Amino acid sequence: NNNSMLIQCVGFPFSTCCMAKSKYEYVKNFEQDDRLLPNTWLVLRVDGRAFHKFSPAHKFCKPNDVRALNLMNAAAIACMKEFSDIVLAYGESDEFSFVFRKETKLFQRRNSKIVTAVVSYFTAVYVMEWNKHMLIKAPPKSQVQVLLDKNKTSSSPSLEPGTHNKPKDNTIDNPDQQAQDDGDPAPLLYPPQFDGRIVCYPSLQNLRDYLTWRQVDCHINNLYNTTFWSLILLGGLTETEAEEKLKTTLSKDKNEILFSGFSINYNLEPAMFRKGSTIIRKPVEKTITKMSPKR
Amino acid sequence: NNNSMLIQCVGFPFSTCCMAKSKYEYVKNFEQDDRLLPNTWLVLRVDGRAFHKFSPAHKFCKPNDVRALNLMNAAAIACMKEFSDIVLAYGESDEFSFVFRKETKLFQRRNSKIVTAVVSYFTAVYVMEWNKHMLIKAPPKSQVQVLLDKNKTSSSPSLEPGTHNKPKDNTIDNPDQQAQDDGDPAPLLYPPQFDGRIVCYPSLQNLRDYLTWRQVDCHINNLYNTTFWSLILLGGLTETEAEEKLKTTLSKDKNEILFSGFSINYNLEPAMFRKGSTIIRKPVEKTITKMSPKR
Amino acid sequence: NNNSMLIQCVGFPFSTCCMAKSKYEYVKNFEQDDRLLPNTWLVLRVDGRAFHKFSPAHKFCKPNDVRALNLMNAAAIACMKEFSDIVLAYGESDEFSFVFRKETKLFQRRNSKIVTAVVSYFTAVYVMEWNKHMLIKAPPKSQVQVLLDKNKTSSSPSLEPGTHNKPKDNTIDNPDQQAQDDGDPAPLLYPPQFDGRIVCYPSLQNLRDYLTWRQVDCHINNLYNTTFWSLILLGGLTETEAEEKLKTTLSKDKNEILFSGFSINYNLEPAMFRKGSTIIRKPVEKTITKMSPKR
Amino acid sequence: NNNSMLIQCVGFPFSTCCMAKSKYEYVKNFEQDDRLLPNTWLVLRVDGRAFHKFSPAHKFCKPNDVRALNLMNAAAIACMKEFSDIVLAYGESDEFSFVFRKETKLFQRRNSKIVTAVVSYFTAVYVMEWNKHMLIKAPPKSQVQVLLDKNKTSSSPSLEPGTHNKPKDNTIDNPDQQAQDDGDPAPLLYPPQFDGRIVCYPSLQNLRDYLTWRQVDCHINNLYNTTFWSLILLGGLTETEAEEKLKTTLSKDKNEILFSGFSINYNLEPAMFRKGSTIIRKPVEKTITKMSPKR
Question: Which CATH architecture has domain C34-279?
């Protein structure tokens, strides 16, 4: 509660009556110049903080919540509209990377200014558009969810044959788990938090490698998560059991678990889950009226 | 509209099938270490961006809007609760300064992490608590507003005698102006934006001088604004005329304009307007039960 | 004299008997990481400090001292041998720029380490090779010096016709001036001092523009200096008069002064004076023994 | 040899005839502001680079060479005279730390400027004063050297009883070793190299702890080295054997080895070896002539 804080509207004991502002302005000199190297691509990555708690608290679908991803995309699009020097954005999970053109002079390329303005704006949009995106019954998109829904509505809960495909209906310890998987509309319970950082990349190759790095991260995490939650939601394993089972698996092993265990073809998972979201500006169509040459 | 952006869920043309993450991880080395000097006070200032547009768009009362200041205070208090190393916060107008204790190890003192996390959280709370604070008919607190309300309700619109105290009712060009002054409940129309920066202060004297610098800034701006809006709202001047009239005035001249022109005693203005808001943690009372010594 | 300093070999009063090193090692954390952005050209410029005093104190020839330039070149070559990641060096006057290849990992690209090691080495070589380069009677190379020598040895001191070509022999106020122009061998009187800084350039175009910037600087300064010292040494003007005369002149005016006043064709000045010294590594000739194909 | 480098005095192919300097000056914007935090103690440490090779190459006495330490002290004193904001210097082995007063405005506190100027000056003095300090037959100061000298001149090379105190005269593999120990005058064979870095310390306690940290380092290294070289020079061990023997020893063990093996009392070693050199400015005596009051 707010009782733990005291708001006071008092003159600081150390302030002087004369209010000579210039006497104190020397403190401005302690601010350090943080302008970023010119002629480099600025890549600003926004990351959700503690979303491993935030997403279950708000009952995000597992392994992916389309609504939550759409909300991230909406916040990213708003940032691209607000900051016109962003040429591309790439998002996956609870993070978004924004690429500023090399020549940007935004805030004289001051690091703190740029990173805080974008993170602040991203956060504001995320909160403002929460209800629009999250307070809907989202269509399940992952095959995991599709199967889960089918199981729930069908009388026979039999899944694909396999060791772990016991009906999970009676094995759930945590009643919230069920709700979580439903993608039920969830109001914003507490303020989300994002952090950010800017990295300069001198060459186009570096920039490409950065984006590929994030996309590989997306792939690895999504394959893991899809398998992990299949084992739990469809296979009835506990989180610990699923973690243990996946410990030493390679990509092909996970693909195999999905396919032979649950008839899930990973490559048929929605592209947004597997590859993330890349946002670019639409090329503007310019109508060029071609004049007939004079003779 | 969102039509100007394209969302694509495609593999980057430069990504490889093998997904060797380690091949791309070298891009992490481009991130620069931005840890702040240990054993210094970290002062993080959050500033509203373009609030000269945001506040009239949301019809903030002039010269001060108690509701908006309370909202800023609420966001600051939330930050102090979330980040326990903040020992003091000082706010005025659309800015808030947070003082972290010298020994803080928050995010290993990484500049970008700290500044973005706090600015993001501040923004999220500001948006989430907007309705709670702004959708009320706030009590006018400045004498300017009190007089204005009195004038509106009284049949005789005569103000203090003076050259400029014509009834303003008929002189308003901009109908929004009237609404603006009323402090009418205003929904959040577009995302607010805050930026931030961290400055290290090595000594307590530097820290005190920083806070005094901000408080002097508060005083100077508030005296100016109170006089400026009195001339406009009560005296019927245009903004340009008011600006012109105040151009070369000193503090005592502004006090004199307020008093002789509008019977406003600046020193009776609410302390929060004149001195800003200082937030500290309430000292915790610990009940120590002294055991009587056994015999 | 050294009497103003006290050398003491005492234990600090604050040191402890137990000598627990770990207790104090926390002070290492105050050192800030200053690694330079990868994949950028590092350009390290070494600049003579206070050489406007150092060069007359050591009687450098005016407008240029071949010996002093050769000494700079020797120090630069030594640096290129010591630091193998330097791919090019460009020198003019009392400065030298060293270009490190983009991929250099020298000292993990730590700014302070690189800049101090190179500046230290440059300084050491400059001092060690001083006698070798400076204790010789250098051949005058600038046409200014050639003419001056001719004048000195000829009985008739008449120069080119012109307003200012009074014989200077009797007009010299400062007897040192005469010696200065002779390029007399001069022992090193006091320690020279160089400072340095590193700048990162992301693209080849930026690097080229940097080098051009320095060469344009060389050109502008050398044309000015050649004209300035012609007016003084050959034309008999005082430094103040020469400065005044050149104040508003353009390049073509200076060329004209040189040519019509002293028959000096600026374009015939030694290339090292006009264009600076560019040092590159000699391409290594590798003898590739071509094996006759087996049958 | 210099044959590996090419000096060229050519216009860069990319330079333009018109020499518009302003066109290229944009490259200055790539330089980053590196001003150090105000109101902090600046500690600049100069370190010899590769002195583990430099000192044997120049036959420094082991475990300590008084001449080399005096040369370091001389360079440090010169720096303190040149840079008047240095209030204290502390040296040990091949390093020297300079403490600048908190208020220093030297070069506007620009990191690169300060560190390179001091390192350059230190290096220049070190080279210039080499002959003065090193080309003398220095008095051996360590008890190790005293004993070694005694042994050499005495007919009976018997040392303290012990397993390792075989006369070493015939066991020396490396003839240079002998010379090395003599402290023979040695001309400067190649340029020495120093690097440097500046660290900001906000409080006096941090500064004290820094200096103590260096002094503890001095103590630990010197006790080790004294024991190490006693074992080799007096005890006849090889370097590998000595290293092995000292591997797990504590301070008291090393003291015991010195005392029981070689009758060396570590505490009687010269204070400069054990505690380093602290240089401060002599307090200036000001004669204040008191005027008799007029009547």
Answer: 2-Layer Sandwich (3.30)
In this predicted complex, what is the ipTM?
0.87
Domain B33-276 -> CATH class: alpha beta
**C202–chain B Cβ distance below 8 A for any pair:** no
Mean pLDDT of the region B144-153: 85
Q: Which chains have at least 3 CB atom pairs separated by less than 8 Å from chain A?
A: B, C, D
Question: Which among A29, A30, A38 has the least Cβ separation from residue D29?
Answer: A38
Distance from CA of B278 to the nearest CA of D (A): 26
C39 touches chain B (CB under 8 A): yes
Nearest Cα residue to C45 out of C147, C198, C181, C154? C198
Collapsed DSSP state (helix, strand, coil) of residue A251: helix
Question: D39–B206: do the CB atoms touch at under 8 Å?
Answer: yes
Q: Do C206 and A39 touch (CB under 8 A)?
A: yes
Q: Could you give the CA distance from residue C197 to residue D272 in angstroms, rounded to a whole number?
A: 35
Q: pLDDT tens-digit profile of A89-127?
A: 999 999 999 999 999 999 999 999 999 999 999 999 999
The single residue listed with the structure tokens 């075989």 is: D166
Residues of C in contact with D73 (CB under 8 A): 7
Q: What is the mean pLDDT of residues B65-88?
A: 96
For chain D, give the DSSP string.
-GGGEEEE----TT--TT--HHHHGGGGGGSPP-BPPTTSEEEEEEEESSHHHHHHHTT--SS--HHHHHHHHHHHHHHHHH-TTEEEEEEETTEEEEEEPTT--GGGGBHHHHHHHHHHHHHHHHHHTHHHHHSS-PPP-SHHHHHHHHHHHSS----SSSSS----TTT-S-HHHHHHHHT------S---EEEEEEEE-SHHHHHHHHHHHHHHHHHHHHHHHHHHIIIIIT---HHHHHHHHTT--HHHHHHIIIIIH---GGGS-HHHHH-EEEEEPPPP---PPPPPP-
Interface-testing mutation among A34, A35, A40, with chain C (most C C-beta atoms within 10 A):
A40
**Domain locations in chain C as residue ranges:** 34-279
Interface membership of C215 toward D (CB under 8 Å): yes
User: Hey, is the C-beta of C199 within 8 angstroms of any chain A C-beta?
Assistant: no
Which of C25, C74, C122 is closest, CB to CB, to D213?
A: C25
Q: Which residue has the higher pLDDT, A64 or C151?
A: A64
* Cα C198 to Cα C202: distance, rounded to the nearest angstrom: 13
Mark the ranges of chain D whose per-residue pLDDT is less than 50.
Answer: 14-16, 155-181, 295
pLDDT of residue D286: 64
Chain D residue with CA closest to B41: the answer is D202
CATH level 2 (architecture), domain D33-280: 2-Layer Sandwich (3.30)
Is the pLDDT confidence value at B152 over 60? yes
Asked if A38 and D30 come within 8 Å (Cβ–Cβ), the reply is yes
Q: Which residue has the tokens 């066109």?
A: D23
Whether D206 sits inside 8 A of C12 (CB atoms) is no
Please name the residue of chain D whose CA is at the shortest distance from the CA of residue A29.
D38
- Give the other-Cβ count within 10 Å of C23's Cβ: 13
3-class SS at C290?
Answer: coil
pLDDT, one tens digit per residue, over C202-235 is 999 999 999 999 999 999 999 999 999 999 999 9
How confident is the model over C18-32, as pLDDT tens digits? Answer: 556 788 999 999 999
